[in-house]
Amino acid sequence: MSNTAIKLKKSSVVGKAPGVDDLQYGEVAINYADGRIYYKNSSNEIKYFIDSDGLQTFLDQKLNVDG
To answer: Is the pLDDT of residue 17 over 90?
Structure first.
């Protein structure tokens, strides 16, 4: 692993996600309105992590639909 600095990009617009041209490898984008942290993976796709509140809401909705 190299000693590459992480560059942070941010947005407060709900639903706004970066495209593959918006992030370089090692850059991170944060949407603090959605609670998501985006990164570019080795397949040149944008992936994200979601905060625990968002995950809980998703699971609650899924259980209500399937339950």
So the answer is: yes
Please answer whether residues 35 and 29 qualify as being in contact, where contact means their C-beta atoms are separated by less than 8 angstroms. no
Phi, psi of 16 (to 5 degrees): -80, 125
Beta-bridged to residue 49, according to DSSP, are 37
> Residue with structure tokens 């495209």?
19
CB 17 within 8 A of CB 48: yes
Say which residues have a Cβ less than 8 Å from residue 34's Cβ, sequence separation at least 6: 14, 15, 16, 50, 54
Overall residue count recorded for the chain in this entry? 67
Residue 40: Cβ within 10 Å count:
21
Mean pLDDT along residues 29-33? 93
Amino acid of residue 12: S
Confidence band for 67, pLDDT divided at 50, 70 and 90: low
pTM of the model: 0.71
